[in-house]
Design a protein that fits this description.
The chain is mostly helical. The protein folds into four domains: 137 residues, 3-Layer(aba) Sandwich (Rossmann fold); 152 residues, 3-Layer(aba) Sandwich (Rossmann fold); 45 residues, Orthogonal Bundle (Helicase, Ruva Protein, domain 3); 87 residues, Orthogonal Bundle (Arc Repressor Mutant, subunit A), CATH 1.10.10. Helix content is 47%, strand content 9%. The strands form five sheets. It has a three-stranded antiparallel sheet. β1, α1 and β2 form a beta-alpha-beta unit. α1 packs across α10 and α17 crosses α19. The protein starts with 5 loop residues before the first strand and ends with a helix.
C-alpha cells in the first residue's frame, strides 16, 4: 500500500446483494484502489433473524464474480479481525462501558408506550419527534430502576450544531437540538447499527466511508460516538441511491435487482461492473466502455453526481452485448456452456465454439444462447406456435423437395447450401425470406435462429434432412 487511505464495504447478508449496494461497494473499492490504499470487507450480521450463512458466502461470491477484491475481510483475515460483527460483541460491550463511564451514554428505562405517547404530544405541539432526554436525569433513572424496568443504552448526543463535510454532497449541517439521543444497545444487550458501525470504523482505522445517502443522517451520530471514544471520524461521502425506470428506489418490483440475478441471466461481470460504475459517476462525457484498470485510474469521488441514478436494464443488455462480441470464440463458448447445461443440454464444445460467430451479435445475455442454439444440441425439436404456422403455410411439397435436394448436395457448406436454397425458393416463386422461413422453422423449431445456411452446415446433412422430412 502506498497511502493511508482505508475504505470499507459493510453489507448485511440477508439475501443476494442488491445492485445498488454493489455499486456503493464498487465506488468504495475503486476509491481505495485509485489512492493505493486498503479496501476492507466487513460483514454486518448482528441481526441473527435475517442473516444466513448461505447469504454470507453468497455476498462474497457475488463481489468476487463482479471483480471486487479486498485486502482485509472475514475470509482473508487482517490486523483488525474479526471482520464479522457477530464475532465482535465483546468489543461493543467494552466500548459501551467506556461510554457509560465517561457519561456519554446512559441507561434509558422508558417503555415503548411512553415513548410513543410523548412522540405524539411533541408532534401536537409542533415540535420535531425524537427522544426528549427524560432518562438523562439520574433521579428519573433511579426511580425507574427501582420499579424493576429493563433498560436500553442511549448515547447522549452533544447539544450543538453538527456539520458533515460530505465529499459527495458538500457541507451538511444539523441545528443544535435537532439530533436527539439515540439507542446504542437494545434491552437484550445487542448492539444497534449506530454503535457497531462507529466502533468498527474507528478500530479498523477507516479513513473514508462511501455509502448510500439514505444513511446521511447516521453520519453525525457515527462521528459523535467516535469522538466520544477518543477517535477521529472518517471522511464521509453519501452517494445518491439507484432508482428504477419509474424514478423510485430500485426494488424487486422492477424485476431483477441482485447481482446474482443478473449473473444467472447471463450478464458478464465486466459488463455489470462497467455499467454500475457509470451509474451516477463518469470519467468524462465521451467514455462509455472502460476496463477495471481504467476505472481505478480515473475514479474520483468528486465526479459522483448528486442526483439519483436510473437503472436501465435495456442499456445494461446493450452494454453486455458489446462485451459478448469482444470475447473470442473459445472464451464465449466456455461461458455459454454453463447456461446450455443448466437448460438440460449437453453441447459438444467444438461445435459450440464454431457456432459463436453466428450468434454473438444477437446475444444480449449469455442465456440467449439456449434459445438460439438449442436446435444444435438436441433432436427433441418441437415447433413453437409461430414455427408451426409458418410450416403449415409452406407450399405443398416444398419442404420435401428441399430435403431431397439437400440430400444430394455436395459439398455441405454454408455457401453451397445458400445457393441451393435460393434456387429452390425462386423455382417455387418465393423470395429468399419466404423460402428460408419454413426451412428454418422445420429444422430449429423456431422462426428465430442464427443465419440459416450456416445453421444447416453446423447441424449436419443427416439431421437437417430428417427434420425437413418430419415436418413435410
Amino acid at each position: 500500500m502506498t497511502s493511508g487511505v482505508r475504505t470499507r464495504f459493510a453489507p448485511a447478508p440477508s439475501g443476494s446483494i442488491h445492485v445498488g449496494n454493489a455499486r456503493t461497494g464498487l465506488f468504495s473499492w475503486a476509491f481505495a484502489r485509485h489512492a493505493g490504499g486498503a479496501f476492507v470487507l466487513r460483514i454486518e450480521d448482528t441481526d441473527a433473524s435475517r442473516v444466513t450463512e448461505e447469504a454470507f458466502h453468497g455476498v462474497m461470491d457475488s463481489l468476487r464474480w463482479l471483480g471486487i477484491d479486498w485486502d482485509e475481510g472475514p475470509d482473508v483475515g487482517g490486523p483488525h479481525a474479526p471482520y464479522r460483527q457477530s464475532q465482535r460483541l465483546d468489543i461493543y460491550r467494552e466500548m459501551t462501558e467506556r461510554l457509560l463511564s465517561s457519561g456519554d451514554a446512559y441507561p434509558c428505562y422508558c417503555t415503548e408506550e411512553e415513548l410513543e405517547e410523548r412522540r405524539k404530544a411533541a408532534l401536537a405541539r409542533g415540535e420535531p419527534p425524537g427522544y426528549d432526554g427524560k432518562c438523562r436525569d439520574p433521579d428519573v433513572r433511579a426511580a425507574f430502576e427501582a420499579e424493576g424496568r429493563t433498560a436500553v443504552i442511549r448515547f447522549a448526543m452533544p447539544e450543538r450544531e453538527h456539520v458533515v463535510h460530505d465529499l459527495a454532497k458538500g457541507e451538511v449541517r444539523w441545528a443544535p437540538g435537532h439530533l436527539r439521543d439515540f439507542v446504542l444497545v437494545r434491552s437484550d444487550g445487542s448492539p444497534v447499527f449506530l454503535l457497531a458501525v462507529a466502533v468498527d470504523d474507528m478500530l479498523m482505522e477507516i479513513t473514508h466511508v462511501i455509502r448510500g445517502d439514505d444513511l446521511l443522517a447516521s453520519a453525525p451520530r457515527n462521528a459523535a460516538v467516535i469522538e466520544a471514544l477518543g477517535g477521529t471520524p472518517p471522511a464521509y461521502a453519501h452517494v445518491p441511491q439507484v432508482n428504477g425506470s419509474d424514478g423510485k428506489p430500485l426494488s424487486k418490483r422492477h424485476g431483477s435487482t441482485s447481482v446474482e440475478a443478473f449473473r444467472e441471466r447471463g450478464i458478464l461481470p465486466e459488463a455489470l461492473m462497467n455499467y454500475l460504475a457509470l451509474l451516477g459517476w463518469s470519467k468524462d462525457a465521451e467514455t462509455t466502455f472502460l476496463s477495471k484498470q481504467e476505472l481505478i485510474d480515473a475514479f474520483e469521488i468528486e465526479r459522483v453526481s448528486r442526483n439519483p441514478a436510473r437503472f436501465d436494464v435495456g442499456k445494461l443488455e446493450w452494454m453486455n452485448n458489446h462485451y459478448v462480441q469482444s470475447l473470442d470464440d473459445d472464451d464465449l463458448a466456455s461461458r455459454c456452456l454453463h447456461f446450455l447445461s443448466v437448460a438440460g443440454l449437453s453441447p459438444d464444445l467444438e461445435l459450440l465454439r464454431r457456432a459463436m460467430p453466428l450468434v454473438k451479435e444477437r446475444m444480449k445475455t449469455l442465456s440467449d444462447s439456449v434459445d438460439l442454439l438449442r436446435f444444435l444440441f438436441t433432436d427433441d425439436i418441437t415447433l413453437d406456435e409461430k414455427a408451426a404456422e409458418v410450416v403449415s403455410k409452406a407450399p405443398d411439397g416444398y419442404l420435401r423437395s428441399v430435403a431431397e435436394a439437400l440430400a444430394e448436395l455436395r459439398p455441405w457448406d454454408a455457401e453451397t447450401i445458400k445457393a441451393e436454397l435460393d434456387e429452390l425458393a425462386a423455382g417455387t416463386g418465393l423470395n429468399r425470406t419466404k423460402g428460408f422461413q419454413p426451412v428454418r422453422a422445420a429444422v430449429t423449431g423456431s422462426t428465430v435462429s442464427p443465419p440459416l445456411p450456416e445453421s444447416l452446415e453446423l447441424l449436419g446433412r443427416e439431421r437437417a434432412i430428417e427434420r425437413l422430412r418430419s415436418a413435410s
